[in-house]
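Morning run. Coffee first, then this:
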Amino acid sequence: MNAPIDLSGVRLETDDLILRPFEETDLEDLYEYARVPGVGEMAGWAHHKSMEESKEVLAMFIREKKTLAVVEKRSGKVIGSIGIETYSQEHAGEEFQPLLCRDIGYALSKDYWGKGLMPQAVKRALNFCFDDLGLDAVFCGYFKRNHQSRRVNEKIGFQYICDRVYTTRYGTQEDGVFTVMRKENWQR
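And here it is:
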């Protein structure tokens, strides 16, 4: 079952990052990374074509209270996002129906790819999901062509559930992989 969630007031930290709710003042940073071709497309959304588009997405992040800004501590710059989303009950299987679960999704500025930052962010978010939200499992899906997300997934130890086809927000189909981290398997 999809657990209810409200990330208002949440502030999580790692050695290099702060995860916190998006604020209106994050607009320029969001647009800076979201406008770069390839960033959104790896997560199922088209890169932003205008500041106005980023403004609409930012308003949605603030309103829905399920997405955190990934902030580089050193600079204070928003360099990505991490969302604790609803999951596809159809692909998860019956064993998860009575359990409290969510799906985790993330995007990171291309300037920060390959630096080990997203595994830090996802690990911290998983600690929060299991310890503070009381979730039993967290799912994560990625496109097969997204080797960076596959590596994040492997580093953290998500377990394979199935291959599946994802429909992107811009109407295309992508072959992907659906995985899970169960609370009892989580290694802090």
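The chain has one domain: 12-185. Good start to the day.
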